[in-house]
Amino acid sequence: MNVLCIDGGGIRGLIPALVLAEIERRTGRRAAEMFDIVAGTSTGGILACGLTRPGTDGRPRFSAAELANIYVEEGPRIFHRSALKRITSVEGLLDERYDDDGLNAALARYLGDARLAEALTDVLVTAYDISGRFAFFFRSSRARDNPRYDFPLVQVARATAAAPSYFEPAQVTDVAGARTYPLIDGGVFAVNPSMCAYADVVGAGRAGELKLMLSLGTGEHTHSYTFEETRSWGQLEWARPILDIVFDGVADTIEFESARVMGDRYVRLQTELDIASDDLDDAGERNLVALRREAEQLIAASEAEIDRVCAILAP
User: Cα angle vertex 187, ends 186, 189, to 5°?
Assistant: First the structure.
């Protein structure tokens, strides 16, 4: 059994998309043909949906390289704010930073009317129910058996991408019409979904079958805060940085846990953001070029790990 996990990180999802494109190029196979489970959070959840969406020929509709265009072509429209929006939201302090028109349009273009139950391999995507106050998992294995747990992929992707203060929460309704859930980004508890995926493997009684869990990061934060800078901060000053700090801390914790539990079956491909911005929403042309360079450097620095991954995944 081989499992793919992709972190959250907004526009920085370009990095794992390009790393995965390199793996697809080397193996000559698409992700849904190599992995038994694809798990994702936020931008990683969008990729998980796109990678497993079936095409008319029954094979994966998109390659990872094609999905990278979500960031390059759609990113500037997704993370666009009018002057009015900047003023009325007070830069995201009083309202979400972005209207979701661009995001919804991009998801519709890439995911169409496909449903979770139709995913070509098992999918696990994280979200959080703000009304019931529980972690919510979109799972295609459950969706295939019960329409009350099946959802349009567009709704799955929209829910997992609802990062607090960036986009408004999503309301999703199962295809049976049984229940509507108010959901936000699963990054609040699992920006790296590796342990969630591992729990699913263990729950299915297949832990002994696991050969590889490939975990793809979206770049480590490098912006630091000093004691003197933060000692007098209140809610207003912490409002912006706290989300990134929580996401970063959760990702580091899960990476530690996964490596300890799975040993050398767990391969983590991650990079420090030395060139690109660590902002979730910097979709400027200059930063997109920098993110591509970060991916290229990660691939070059991870040659041995990628070779081992491809040897496991190759037919």
Answer: 80
The helix-helix angle for 14-27 and 43-52 (nearest 10°) equals 30
DSSP states along the chain: -EEEEE---GGGGHHHHHHHHHHHHHHTS-HHHH-SEEEEETHHHHHHHHHH-B-TTSSBS--HHHHTHIIIIIHHHHT---HHHHHHHTTTTSS-SS-SHHHHHHHHHHHTT-BGGG-SSEEEEEEEETTTTEEEEEEHHHHTT-GGG--BHHHHHHHHT--TTTS--EEEE-TTS--EEEEEETHHHHSS-HHHHHHHHHHTT-GGG--EEEEE---B------HHHHTT--HHHHTTHHHHHHHHHHHHHHHHHHHHHHGGGEEEE--B-SSS---SS---HHHHHHHHHHHHHHHHHTHHHHHHHHHHH--
pLDDT in tens, 52-110: 999 999 899 999 999 999 999 999 999 976 544 444 544 555 557 898 999 999 999 99
Q: Which residues contact 177 (CB under 8 A, 6 or more apart)?
A: none
C-alpha angle with apex 1: 207 to 23, nearest 5 degrees?
135
Residues listed for the chain: 315
Cα–Cα distance, 79 to 77 (Å, whole number): 6
Residue whose token pair is 């910097």: 282
Is this model's pTM higher than 0.90 or not? yes
Euclidean distance between CA atoms 280 and 262, whole angstroms: 29
Q: Find residue 171's DSSP bridge partners.
A: 182
Instruction: At 139, list the tokens.
Output: 């799972």
